[in-house]
Write a sequence for this structure.
């Protein structure tokens, strides 16, 4: 029998898009704990932000931060050594570029093109709290970035050609962009590359595994491509991100944690 591994996005997926609550997913979360199924949090959030939700979920498993920029594995988690830097009790596999490099590139492109784009590095914690509907304490943690810069377009938000020009300039600079709740500029990393590495460790530990992946936005597409059972949950208003389309994609019936709960309960029962 295959060992089930679940990899999930947070915002708008396991967490409700407005309230950030995961209570609607409680039945599935309880079953995951009962069956001792690893639950991997894979988010655009920072390490500091994810650690808040690991505590709330009583989650002791590895996690992936900032769109695959870093993989954090609790030291001693796997029954074999992990050749990676150890810090704060984690073996850390770095896939992203340093935040300072990303931030400097963002500023250079913005100045060169004269496009009004604003990154988290330009904002106070108070501004991020309002923009993302976060408590101030969590908004402050969102500024503790290691690998990528979330940003928004301001005055030119409806000018598609300028937005496309900015995104092309990111690509021309050798960097990449993706989009979740916000746009992100990042290095040569994504959620899928990080998931692939973690899958290798689980296969080494357990042999045959069956992976369930859940997301809701374009930046989750690389994650969903890497799993056996890709699940797309509904966004606020009941729509699905049309840019996420795979032959074996499962579209969950419900917004955020409601759809997450239904899909996970059904898939665990089917696989087991």
């Amino acid at each position: 029998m295959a060992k089930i591994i679940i990899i999930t996005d947070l915002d708008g997926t396991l967490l409700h898009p407005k309230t950030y609550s995961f209570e609607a997913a409680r039945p599935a979360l309880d079953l995951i704990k009962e069956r001792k199924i690893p639950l991997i949090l894979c988010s655009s959030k920072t390490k500091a932000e994810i650690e808040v939700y690991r505590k709330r979920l009583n989650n002791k498993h590895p996690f992936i931060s900032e769109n695959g920029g870093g993989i954090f594995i609790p030291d001693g988690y796997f029954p074999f050594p992990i050749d990676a830097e150890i810090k704060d009790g984690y073996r850390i596999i770095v896939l992203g570029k340093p935040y300072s490099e990303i931030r400097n590139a963002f500023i250079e492109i913005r100045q060169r093109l004269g496009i009004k784009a604003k990154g988290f590095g330009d904002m106070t914690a108070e501004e991020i709290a309002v923009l993302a509907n976060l408590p101030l304490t969590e908004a402050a943690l969102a500024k503790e970035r290691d690998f990528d810069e979330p940003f928004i377009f301001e005055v030119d938000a409806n000018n598609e050609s300028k937005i496309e020009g900015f995104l092309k300039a990111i690509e021309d600079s050798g960097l990449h962009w993706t989009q979740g709740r916000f746009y992100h500029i990042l290095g040569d990393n994504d959620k899928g590359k990080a998931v692939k590495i973690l899958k290798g460790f689980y296969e080494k530990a357990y042999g045959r595994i069956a992976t369930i992946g859940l997301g809701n936005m374009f930046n989750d597409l690389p994650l969903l491509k890497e799993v056996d059972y890709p699940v797309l949950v509904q966004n606020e208003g009941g729509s699905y991100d049309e840019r996420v389309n795979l032959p074996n994609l499962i579209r969950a019936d419900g917004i955020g944690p409601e759809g997450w709960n239904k899909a996970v309960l059904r898939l665990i029962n089917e696989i087991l």
Summary: The CA atoms of residues 170 and 234 lie 29 Å apart. The chain has two domains: 3-95+209-271, 99-186. The radius of gyration is 18 Å. The chain has a mean pLDDT of 95.
